[in-house]
Amino acid sequence: MKLNTIYILLFALMIAICACTKVFDVLRQMHEYEKFTVAPYPLKRSGNNVVFTMLAKVPKKLLLYRRSKKTQYTFEIRYRIGDIEKFIPLEKPEAEVNIGGFKFIASEYQSSNITPTQTKTFRFTDQDQYKKGFLVYYTFVQIGDHFQQWRGPYLITSNGKPVTGIE
């Protein structure tokens, strides 16, 4: 009886690992598929604020398990203070300003044939130490109630160029 229980548990574990393998592979590579467009480029001061418009686009294949109403894909946008030459992906920052984010909910795009796209205008208060910096993002993926993962930071590029500095 104990041997059968062990076999059943091992079989269930193997199924769980096989089911999650595709999810983990996509999560590791997802930053390569995300597309951003930022205007103005480089960022510009408007009075005491820095105001910019950002478009985020996510391929439908990244909204995994679209049948699940609880699948969410979130971008957290931040302005990192410092030199872009010292940026290392996935390294924790010394100083960042949280600007806002985008949230893509799979059920909203379930029956649509369009690519999931959102456009937002962001603003943050300008300070002298912000002149040298760049935009980064973190991704948060939630699939159902049980799987959640944060990844990042990754450099935000617009048309292939990193979004840097404030003029």
List keywords for this structure.
167 residues; Immunoglobulin-like; 4-stranded antiparallel beta sheet; 10 strands
Brief synopsis:
This protein has 167 residues and is an alpha+beta fold. It has one helix at residues 2-29, and strands at 35-39, 45-46, 49-57, 72-81, 96-105, 117-125, 133-143, 147-155, 157-158, 161-162. The protein has one domain: Immunoglobulin-like, CATH 2.60.40.
Question: What can you tell me about this protein's structure?
Answer:
The protein has 167 residues and is an alpha+beta fold. The chain has one domain (33-162): Immunoglobulin-like (Sandwich), CATH 2.60.40. The protein has 1 helix and 10 strands, in the order αββββββββββ. Strands 1, 2, 3 and 6 form a 4-stranded antiparallel sheet that branches. The protein has a 4-stranded antiparallel sheet with strand order 5-4-7-8, with no helix packed on it. A two-stranded antiparallel sheet has the order 9-10. It is elongated, with a radius of gyration of 19 Å. The N and C termini lie far apart (72 Å).
Strand % is 35-45%
Count of DSSP strands: 10
CA radius of gyration: 19 Å
Q: Which range best describes the helical content: under 10%, 10-25%, 25-40%, 40-55%, 55-70% or over 70%?
A: 10-25%
**Structural class of the helix and strand makeup?**
alpha+beta
Overall shape: elongated
Instruction: List the total number of helices.
Output: 1
What is the string of helix and strand elements?
A: HEEEEEEEEEE
Calculate the terminal CA-CA distance, rounded to whole Å: 72 Å
Biggest sheet, open or closed, and with what strands and sense?
A: 4 strands, antiparallel
Mean pLDDT: 80
Q: Quick one: CATH class?
A: Mainly Beta
**Within the CATH hierarchy, at the fold level, what is the topology?**
Immunoglobulin-like
Low-confidence stretches: none
Number of structural domains: 1
Question: Which CATH-level-2 architecture?
Answer: Sandwich
